[in-house]
Amino acid sequence: MKELTIFIDNREIKVLEGTTILEAAKKAGIEVPTLCYYKDLNPTGNCGVCVVEVEGVDTFKRACITQVENNRKYNTNTRKVMDARKAVVELILSNHPNDCLKCIRNQNCELQTLAADLGIREFPFERFDKDMPIDKKGVIIRDSNKCIQCGRCIKACQDIQTVNAIDFVNRGYETKLGTFMDLPLNDTTCTNCGQCVAVCPVGALYERDDTSAVWAAINDPTKHVVVQEAPAVRVAIGEEFGMPEGTVSSGKMHTALRRMGFDRVFDTNFTADLTIMEEGTEVVNKIATAFKTGEIGKNLPVITSCSPGWIKFMETFFPNLREHISTAKSPQQMFGPLAKTYYAEQEKIDPKNIVSVSIMPCTAKKFEAARPEMNSSGYQDVDYVLTTREFGRMIKEAGIDFKNLPEEEADELMGFYTGAATIFGATGGVMEAALRTVWFVLTGKEMENYDIKLVRGMETGIKEGVVEIPLKEEIAKDLGIKVLPAKVAVAHGLSNARILLTKVAAQLKEKGQSEYHFIEIMACPGGCVGGGGQPYACEYAARARRAEGLYKEDKDITKVRASHNNPMITKIYKDFLEKPNSHKAHKLLHTKYVDRSDLV
Amino acid sequence: MSNYKVVVGMGSCGIAAGAHSVYKKIQDTAKDKPELGIILEETGCIGMCYREPLVEIEDLKSKKKYLYGGVDEKRWEKISAEHLIKGEPVKKWIVKSSEKDGTDEDIFKKQFRVVLSRTGHINPESIDEYLKTDGYKALKRVLKEMKREDVIDEIKKSGLRGRGGAGFPTGLKWEFASREKNDKKYIVCNADEGDPGAFMDRAVLEGDPHSVIEGMIIGAYAIGADEGYVYCRAEYPLAIKRLTMAIEQAEKMNFLGDKILQTEFSFHLKIKQGAGAFVCGEETALIASIEGKRGMPRIRPPFPAQKGLWKKPTNINNVETFANIAWIIYNGYEKYASMGTKNSKGTKVFSLSGKIKRTGLAEVPMGISLREIIFEIAGGILDDKKFKAIQVGGPSGGCIPEKLLDTPVDYDSLNATGAIMGSGGMVIMDENSCMVDVARYFLNFTQNESCGKCTFCRIGTKRMHEILSRITQGKGREGDIEKLEEIAHMVAESSLCGLGQTAPNPVLTTIKYFRDEYEAHIKEKRCPAGQCKELITLKIDKEKCIKCGICAKNCPVECIRGSKENPYEIIQEKCIKCGNCKTVCPTKAVIVE
Amino acid sequence: MTNDDRSALMEIVGKYKSQKGSLIPVLQNIQEYLGYISKESVEFVSEQLNYPESDIYGVVTFYAQFKLEKPGKHGIKVCQGTACHVIGADTVRDVIFKELNLKKYGTTEDMKFTVEEVACLGCCSLAPVIMIDGQVFGKLTMDKIKKILNSY
Lengths: 600, 593, 152
Prior knowledge:
The complex is a heterotrimer. Chain A is of the alpha/beta class.
C-alpha cells in the first residue's frame, strides 16, 4: 500500500492509503469528536458529528467514512466546523427527551458527554418530543424516543450477530429503530445477547432493571438471600469505579456483596467447575459411544450450552442441532437449583425463603432464568439476575467505596473455585477448562501444561484444531484407538457461530458426521467478558484486557487449576449428587431445548 | 385506398384529457365510412399538453399535415364532416400545420428537437416507425465502424452533460466506467423522474422508447457492459408498458440479446420498477434499490463506476441523456456541439407547467433565456396576471424572480442564481403564488423524502419545515429568517448526498429574492399573495355580487349563503379558504383580505 | 392465508427467485395481487427468499408504494406535485375528503376508496390531477371531482 502525505490542522503526517481522516487525525494526536462511530463496527457516517473541512472541497466531509487523499489539507477545528458539529448535536437534542436526570444513562451517556464537550448551553431549536411507546415486554427495553438513529445497534445485531431482529424502519424524519411489524423485541428473533445495548450511546436500549426487587429481598427479614457472580464480572466491575479493564476484583466483589447485605456470598465459578464435571462426563461418554457404536454423527459433536444468547439463537436458527447441544445447564442455572436444595438442606433453611440472585455480564441470563424449564428445585431456580452494570449501580447506591475495599473469599460451600472455572468468562475458556478435565479422565494423568493457547484469544472468530489425547489403557482397549485426535472448535460472536454451525449442519446432512468432536460457542464477541451486561464502552481491545485478567487469576491467583481437583466439587458429589451424570444430577443440572424456528 | 392518416396523441396527458374516447370515435368513423380511407395511428406526447387531446390529420395525397387541438368527440364530428369529407380544414381548431397557419405556430419557433425529434410523430409501439426515422442506424454504425474509445471520444467532443441534474460530462463518465477492468459491468438508465413538476422523461419513454434503448446499447458497448437496467418509477405505467414492448421488439430484431447484429457484443436489458422514493434518483440509492434494499445513499468514493451494482462497475445516466446519444452519433458531434453555450452544449428538454398559458414540453438549444421560454414558448402568464417566479430544478432547485429572467438557460448561469438546471422541470408562478408557501411545500417534500440517514437532512429539514409552517400560519417570529438561513447552510454543507445538499435551495432562493414576503408574513402577519389560509379572509363584495349562486354551488364546505334576493356571503367560521368561490365568481366579487 | 393465496404467492416468488435483487419486484407483485403487503406475506417471503423479516419490513416501510393495510376497492392518488400545489392540490384533497367523508388520507368506512397522496404523477400540464386505479384525471374542478367519484 502507498504511503500518503497529508496535512491535518497544518500538521504534516504520513499514513497508508485507505486510512480514514478520523484514523489519520488520531495518529496526529487529534481527537475528532464522533457519535455514531464505534471502533468495532463498520462506520456508517450516519450522525455527521465528525465533519471536517477539506481544503478545495465545498462540503464538509465525515471523518469516519472518508479516506484521505494525498497532499490534501484537512481542518478539524475551524470555527465553521465547530459550529456545524454543534449544530448537529443541537438538532439531535431538539428531538431527544430532556430527562437526563432520571435516564438510565445519566453520566454515562455519549450524547450527554458530547453536548458538554461541545459547550452546548441552550436549545436553539424548538423542541419536539416524540411520543412512542416503550417496548418493555422482554429483558431488553427499547425506548425509540431516545434513539438518535446512529445505527450501531443494527450493525451489531445484523453484522456481528446475524440475528437481524432490528432494522431501520420508515423513512425521513419518521425513521426509527424497528422490528418486524413493530413487534416487541421479545417476540422476534432477538437472542437477548445485549450487544445492541452494549453499543447504544444513549438510553434507547437497556436491560430491565431488577435492582429494586433485589434491594427489597435483601431488606426483607423473612428472606435468605444468596448471591452468585459470573467469572467475567470480576474483571469488569472495577471499571465502574475507575479501575482499568481486567483488574481482578474477585475479593472486593465478595466484600461488597457482603456489605450490601446478602446473606451468603457464593460464586458462579463453583458451578462452573460443576459444569465441567457434568459436561465433561457427557463429552467423554458421547465420544465413547460414538467410537464404540460407530454412530459418530449421532453423538458428536457435543456443543457447549453455557451461553443463553447462543442457546436461543440455536433454538431459533438451528433447531435441528438441538440433540448436539450439551444437556448440562449453564453454571448460573446449576447454581440455582443447588442453592434451593443442597444448600438449603445443609443449612436447614426452607427453600421457599431463599432468594437466589445472580450477577452476570449478560442480558440473556435474565431470559434464561425465566425459562419455564428452569425450576428443578420446585421453585424458580434463580430469582433475580443483575448485570454487571446493575451491580455497579447498587454498590454506588449503597455508598460502598469499592476501590478501597479489603478482599474477602466467597463462602466456601458453593464459593470455592478453580482457575478452570474463572476462564469460563473468555472465549475458549469453557473448552480449555473442559479439556483439562477430559484429558485427566481419558489419560489418567494431569496435563503437563494447563495453558491451551490454541483456543485462546479473540482475534480469530473461529478457532479450531486437534488435541491429541493419549488414552489410558482400559479406555484405549475399549475404543480400539490409542490416541484420540480430538477435533475442537471455538466460535465467539453469533456471526461466527452461524458460519461454524452452517458447516456442521451441512457435514451432518451430507456425510452423516461432522469433523468436530467438541465445540464451544459463546454469543458475544470475546465471550462473556464482552457480554451485553458489562460496563459500557467495551470495545474489543477492552474485552481482551478483561480476558487477560481472567487468565491471570487462573494462573497466578487460584490455588487449583482443574475442576476435578476442586475439593468442594468432590464434597458435593459425595454428600449430595453421587456422581457426575447421576440420576439426581440429571434432574437438577441438565435441561432440554425447544424449537423456536417460528420466530424466523 | 388510403386518403388520410389520423394520429392521436396518446401520452399520459392526452389520455387523461380524453384521447381514448376520441380515438374510439375516430375508429368508428373509419369503420362507418370506409370510403374516407382513414389510417388510424397513435403517437406519444406532442408537447402541447394544454391543447390535449391532439389529433393530427395528414392528407396522404398532398402530404399536408394539420394538428387539431382540444379534440373531443363533438369536435371530431365536425372535423370529420368538414375536413375529411368536404376537404375543408377547420381552421379555428388547427394549432399547427404544414402550412404554418395554425393558431399556436410560434410555440415551436424557438425549439430545436433532438430528444423529442420523434416524440409525438411516430407510433411509439412500433419499431418499424422508429427504424423508418433512422432508428438504430447509429447503433449499426457504432458496431460496424467504431471502437469503444471512438464512441467515448465522440460523446466527449459533443459536450453532452448529464441531463439528470448535476450535469457531469457524459463522455467522461463513460470513460471512467470503461477504464475499469472487470468481467462484469452494468449500465443503468435512471428513469425515476422524481422531481415534482418534471415530466420530460415520461414523455420520452412514452413517445420514443427505442431512442433510450439505442442510447443504452451504445453506452453499454462503450463501457463494456453486457447487462443493463432501466429503473423506472411505478407511477408511470404507460411508460413501463411501452418500454417493455420496445425491449421485446428490439430483442426480436437482435438489437438486444446475444451477439448483437452478428458481432461479438451482447447486451441484455431489464426493467426494474421503482417503489416510490425520491432519493432513489441519487445514484448510490438507486443501486441499493435495484439490489432490493432500502434506498439509502452511501459515501462516494468508491464511485459507481468503480463499485456499483452488486459491487461491479456501473454507469448510470438518465433518460434524456441516453435519448441524445444516437442522435449525436448519427448526426455527428459537431452538429450537436454547435448548439448551446460554451460549457453547455446541445439542447435541453423542459417541462412547462404552472400559471402559464401553454403547458407542455419544450426542447430548446442551451443558452436561450428564461424570458423567451416563459413568454414566447409558453405564451406568458395565465389570465395575463403578473409573473412572479419560475421554479427550476425541482426540490433541489430554486425560484428565480422577474429581474433575472434574462438569465440564459445553461448549467453555470442557472447555478449562479442559486437554482440548478436539475432535470428540467419548470413551474411558473404568478402574483397569487406565495413564495413562503412554495418554500414550505418543497421542504415538506424533502423532509418526507429524506432517507433518514443523516442528522442534518433528517432533522434539519424537519426543523426548517416547522419554521416555514409557522411563518405561513402567521406565527413567525423575529429571527426566523436568520435561523432558516443558518440551518440551510448547515444542511447544504454537511449532508452526505445530493438530496440533502440541495434541499435548502428553495428556501435560500426565496429568501434571497423574496425576503419582503417573508417579512410581511412574520412582521405584519400578512400574506401578500393571498394564499396562506391562516392569514387571509375571503369576503364577497355585496356591490359586485350578481346573486348568481355559482360560488355557493362550488363551495366544498357549503359555507356560502344567499339567494336570488340577498347577496351571497361567506360564513367565516366554516370557511376553509380554498378560494374556489374566488376562482368561479364571474364578476370577481370575492375578495381576499 | 388461504391456499389460493399461498399458491399465487408461490408463483410470484418462483418467477423472481432466481433473479438478483428480487425482493422489491416480489413485494410489488404481491401487493398487486393482495392489494397490500400482509404480515403473513412478509413471513412467506422471508421463508422463501431467506431474507430476515425485519429487513423486509425495513424495505416495505421505506418505499411509499407499499401499503401494510388492506386498501379500499379503488385507489385514489392525489398528486402533490409542484404544479398541482400551485394550482390547488389542497383544495382537490379537501373536496375529495368532504365527498368521501374522510378526515385524513386513508380508507373510507365502506372500503370503497383509499385516498393517498403521491409526490407527482408527471401530468403537470393538466394540474391539478388525481389518479384513480391507474387512470389520470386532470384539470379538476369541484364539479368534475364529484362527477368522477360518482362514476365509481
